[in-house]
């Protein structure tokens, strides 16, 4: 089955720790995205990548980092600099970054800071 | 900048009622417009889309028409079911600039039997 796999589904972190959320896709898509979802605020773009070895900051990139070393993988690291990291994180991909491209989403990772 | 505004929720309806969820947008250029649906604990799924003015997107009984003159893309369904209970997101995408979807804040729909 083609799709996007995010792991872990639930993650607990102590303050001051970095954590990495995994996102893998087997759809052969060029573009990948990370969104953060908070109650009542919809989805906000953290980072996106249109092609391997390239990525751009979204609207709320501070305190996050990404890499895109392989086409199928786009991990997100939530660093200790992120002041309010408790949220639901969604990874998505599309064939290419463009006007009509449908985004395919993973099932999300819920991060809680203790 | 580009933005999407949706009506506040939750919207609570009885089964078989008519549904409208309002969505308006602001964009520099001519965006494509989307509705996504999120069921509890899951990621988002594309419900329908429209890529140019006056296009009508439709899927599973849901419809939305791209109205350039009113910059709107309202979601409608003639007869909702309990299984339609979810959060609905309106979004836009441009083929210039950062080329990522911009989402509205989402509208929760609760359908009661």
Name the average pLDDT of chain A. Answer: 91
Q: Biggest protein-protein interface? A: A-B, 28 and 25 residues
Integer average pLDDT of chain B = 92
Low-pLDDT regions of chain A: none
What sort of overall outline of chain B do the alpha carbons produce when their principal axes are compared?
A: globular
The H/E string of chain A reads EEEEEEEEEEE
What structural class should be given to the helix and strand makeup of chain B? Answer: mainly beta
Helix content of chain A: under 10%
Order of helices and strands of chain B: EEEEEEEEEEEE
The low-pLDDT segments of chain B are none
Description:
The complex is a heterodimer of chains A (114) and B (113). By secondary structure, chain A is mainly β. Chain A is 0% helix and 51% strand. Chain A has strands spanning 4-7, 10-13, 19-25, 31-38, 42-51, 54-57, 64-66, 76-78, 87-94, 104-105, 109-113. In chain A, the strands form two sheets. In chain A, strands 2, 4, 5, 6, 9, 10 and 11 form a seven-stranded mixed sheet that branches. Chain A has a four-stranded antiparallel sheet with strand order 1-3-8-7, with no helix packed on it. In chain A, a hairpin with a 3-residue loop joins strand 4 and strand 5. The radius of gyration of chain A is 13 Å and the shape is globular. Chain A starts with a strand and ends with a strand. The model of chain A has no long low-confidence stretch (mean pLDDT 91). With 113 residues, chain B is an all-beta fold. Chain B has strands spanning 3-6, 11-14, 19-21, 23-26, 32-38, 44-50, 56-59, 62-65, 75-77, 86-93, 102-103, 107-112. In chain B, the strands form three sheets. In chain B, strands 2, 5, 6, 10, 11 and 12 form a six-stranded mixed sheet that branches. In chain B, strands 3-9-8-7 form a four-stranded antiparallel sheet, with no helix packed on it. Chain B is globular and about 45 Å long. The A-B interface holds A 4, 6, 31, 33, 35, 40-45, 48, 50, 56, 58, 90, 92, 97-103, 105-108 and B 31-32, 34, 36, 41-46, 49, 51, 89, 93-95, 98-106.
């Amino acid at each position: 089955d083609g799709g996007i796999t995010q792991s872990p589904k639930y993650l607990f972190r102590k303050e001051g720790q970095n954590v990495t959320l995994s996102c893998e896709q087997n759809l052969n898509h060029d573009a990948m995205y990370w969104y953060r979802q908070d109650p009542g605020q919809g989805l906000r773009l953290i980072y996106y990548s249109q092609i391997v070895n390239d990525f751009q900051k979204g609207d709320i990139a501070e305190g996050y980092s990404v890499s895109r070393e392989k086409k199928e993988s786009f991990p997100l690291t939530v660093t200790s600099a992120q002041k309010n990291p408790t949220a639901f994180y969604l990874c998505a991909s599309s064939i290419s970054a463009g006007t009509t491209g449908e985004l395919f989403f993973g099932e999300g990772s819920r991060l809680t800071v203790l | 900048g580009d933005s999407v505004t949706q009506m506040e929720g939750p919207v609570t309806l009885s089964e078989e009622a008519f549904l409208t969820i309002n969505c308006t947008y602001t964009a520099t250029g001519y965006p494509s417009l989307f509705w996504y649906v999120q069921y509890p604990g899951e990621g988002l799924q594309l419900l329908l889309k429209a890529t140019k003015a006056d296009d009508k997107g439709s899927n599973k009984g849901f419809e939305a028409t791209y109205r350039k003159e009113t910059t709107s893309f309202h979601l409608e369904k003639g007869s909702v079911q309990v299984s339609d209970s979810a959060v609905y997101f309106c979004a836009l995408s441009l083929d210039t600039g950062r080329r990522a979807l911009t989402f509205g804040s989402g509208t929760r729909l609760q359908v009661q039997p």
